Amino acid sequence: MAHTDSQPLTPRRVLLVIATGVGAGFLSGVFGVGGGLVIVPALMAVLGMDQRRASATSLAAIIVTAAVGSGTYALHGEVSWAGAALLVVGALTGSQIGVWLLRRLPAPALPWILIGFTVFVIVSQYLHVPTREGSVSLTPASCTLMILVGLCAGILSGLVGVGGGSVIVPGMELAVGAGDLIARGTSLLVMIPTGIAGTVTNLRHRMVDLRIGLIVGASAAAIAPVGRLAATLVSPGMGAILFNIFLLSIIASTILKMRRKARTQG
Fold first, then answer.
1. Which of 207, 213, 254, 4 is nearest to 99 (CA)?
2. How far is the C-alpha of 123 from the C-alpha of 12, rounded, in Å?
3. Are 99 and 201 in contact (CB under 8 A)?
4. How far apart are CA 35 and CA 92, in angstroms?
5. Helix 140-160 vs helix 165-176: angle between axes, to the nearest 10 degrees?
6. Taking Cα atoms as reference points, which of 50, 158, 40, 160 lies closest to residue 95?
7. Tell me, what's the pLDDT at 4?
8. What is the percent of the chain where pLDDT is above 90?
9. Residues 206 and 2 sit within 8 Å (Cβ to Cβ)
10. 28 vs 217 pLDDT, higher one
């Protein structure tokens, strides 16, 4: 299962990889996501990686990003430790299911899974009105929902190479009435053990470029606190609109890439 990048890592391409990390880190801080929705398409475009390797490398990068991002939120009291523990229970199981699927699903199906996931996230934004205030309310029912949210996030984390924050943030807001900032901070915290578990499995199967993952992760981590500051300056409603615009651009980019590939193969 070993893969090789199609081109050598020149200084210019290192700068592009760093730029990928900076963009991912800013979005991580603003939206409470790991940045995988930026990292995966960028690694495919910049380094010519196939989606499997890009997803695995993205997951490694997310560990570093999430550690710094969640720390920044935690310093401001915007993390639910109990909520994170419940989410991790589901996410650790889900990430192993996701990396198992990543090795077995046919390559042409992977872009469609990414698109379907992105559409789901956009739709979920309209199932609730995000608020700034809101504490995490834990009941037997909400605890069960949190574990299920973590399971879904973990599967997508392993399969698509995203941190799962795009599921966890709206999931926490819907399941336990969390405010948008505490949902984002908790989401980033959950990504750390999830990302580690998935990356260990990917390393065993030689699917991850750890060097590139560390460059992207370090670049993203450096800028993530700036993103968190930006999140506090934007209203929850406007934040949701900006997030959806970003997601639509990912869908458009993925479809265009698929069409170009189909033309070259045709």
1. 207
2. 38
3. yes
4. 19
5. 170
6. 158
7. 43
8. 19
9. yes
10. 217
Distance CA 49, CA 42 (A): 9
Contacts of 188 (CB under 8 A, 6+ apart): 28, 32, 34, 65, 66, 69, 70, 73, 163, 165
Residue-wise pLDDT tens digits, 90-148: 998 998 898 899 889 988 888 888 888 888 878 877 776 666 666 677 788 888 999 99
HEC readout, 31-84: HCCCCHHHHHHHHHHHHCCCHHHHHHHHHHHHHHHHHHHHHHHHHCCCCCHHHH
For residue 124 the two structure tokens come to 């979920």
How far apart CA 235 and CA 8 sit, in angstroms, is 43
Residue at 130: amino acid letter: P
Residue 118, C-beta contacts closer than 8 angstroms, at least 6 positions apart: 37, 247, 250, 251, 254
